[in-house]
Write a structure and sequence with these properties.
Layout lengths: L2 H18 L2 H10 L4 E5 L3 H12 L3 E5 L11 E4 L2 E4 L4 E3 L5 H8 L3 E4 L5 E5 L2 E3 L7 H13 L6 H11 L4 H19 L21 E5 L3 H8 L3 E3 L4 E6 L4 E5 L4 E4 L1 E4 L3 H6 L3 E3 L4 H9 L1 E2 L2 E7 L10 E5 L8 E4 L1 H4 L3 E7 H7 L4 H15 L8 E4 L13 E2 L7 H7 L5 E3 L12 H14 L2
Parallel strand pairs: 1-2, 1-14, 2-10, 7-18, 11-15, 14-23
Antiparallel strand pairs: 3-4, 5-9, 6-9, 7-8, 11-12, 12-13, 16-22, 17-20, 17-21, 18-19, 19-20
The structure holds flavin-adenine dinucleotide.
The site of flavin-adenine dinucleotide has 41 residues, from helix 3, strand 5, strand 17 and helix 15.
Amino acid sequence: MTKNLSVKIIISLVIALASVITPETNLLACHKLPPKKIIVVGAGLSGLAAAQNLQQKGYDVLVLEAKDYIGGRVKSETVNGERYELGASWIHGDKNNPLADILKKEGASLIPTEWSPIVYYKNGKRIEFAEDPLEGFYSHIEDIKEENGKDISLDEVWSAFAKKNKLTIDEINDFRSLLAFDIETETGADLKNISAREYEEEQEMKGGDKLVTGGYDLAIKYLAKNLNIKLNSAVNKIEDDGDKAIVTTAAGEVFSASEVIVAVPLGVLQKGSITFTPELPSYKQKAIKSLQMGNLHKTFLSFEKKFWEDADVISIFKNNETKWSSFINLEPVFKKPVLLVLHAGENAKSLEQKTEIEIGQEAYETLKTIYPNAMEPSTVVTSKWHADSFTLGSYSYVPVGASLTMYDDIGKPFGRIHFAGEHTTSEYPSTTHGAYLSGLRVANEIQ
Ligand SMILES: Cc1cc2nc3c(=O)[nH]c(=O)nc-3n(C[C@H](O)[C@H](O)[C@H](O)COP(=O)(O)OP(=O)(O)OC[C@H]3O[C@@H](n4cnc5c(N)ncnc54)[C@H](O)[C@@H]3O)c2cc1C
């Protein structure tokens, strides 16, 4: 054998050997390993988004859900053949909103809500405003932020604004019900609790408010497809022992996984319904304690006949009384005479104590003060999120003294434990798209 020939043989052998240990064969070897196990706690939008994403990447995913249904705060109820959304109804901005894209693809319609025209009534009579009565107040909030002093509540800002502009008692009372509609039902909190410094500092998706018809849960069904979901499985213990995560349910079932995603609402974390071992770090505990859950109560009123005018919202000024002060006209969407009333904060909590008959009667008492031909509602459908022990409120907000960055503190991973949900994103908190995107964020944390 010549020297050249033996070199050639050696090179061929090396090439042949290398072709046996290619990246593909390495990959094949890896694929023979069982896929990493992931447990997701909570089958709301955030948990399902994370679970679906990870399952598609080849992980072995188990979702544990406390309730007997999936979707969490996306929940509809069908009464007399009509579907009412008890949780989320709107997409807040459908431009570059992946959740809006899913809904459209799955067959939902997104109908713009302009929140205008609004008609105003006082002492039973229509009144008019030349311009938006609250415009000056909103710029006043921005001025207060620029002063950069100690954080105060929006109620304090309101009082200072009223004083500076020498508003009469009548004006103060009237505009207070508009603020209840504009700000309190948006945050789910009373003005006296909302941080002025952090108000509307989060990001906003473009495209305006769109009411989802055809079922918000189309997104839930899409995300839950082919997932392994165990209902009626409330988790009460999560332990990271250094090698694995151990998850225990209230019924005593024990599961283990490489990583666990906690996608339960802020209220559940605050109540301490789940014990973490080791204890969560103090910055995270502080953030969980400091941010707050708001309350939003929805009342859908369905009537035999429409007795109100064509307006988006009917506002009724009632001497500093913020209950039953704004009725949203859903007739153009439902194609049936339906009004929706939102109540926030303490009002929402107190309405949860009442029956639907009592609530319908209260609404009717107000409506007949402005419409002589008003009738009692034929159907009343209401929500109860504060009393729901696996939600404990509607969605998070920043109270006086807390800050938006606390959302990110809650969202940071801790060992094998990851956190998703509307309360884990300072970018889009309190929304469905925020919850959905937080699910994708945690899915990407896991390697
Ligand atoms: C009345 C109301 C109106 C709203 N309107 C809008 C709107 O129009 N537009 C909008 O963008 N957003 C709206 N939202 C907010 C939006 O619905 C939420 O931000 C979003 O759905 C939250 O998703 P999530 O995955 O973070 O939490 P959730 O949907 O609450 O999911 C958490 C899940 O965890 C489960 N869970 C709790 N504890 C445990 C446990 N111990 N073990 C296992 N599982 C547990 C719960 O049962 C639940 O299924 C509204 C919310 C409410 C209540």
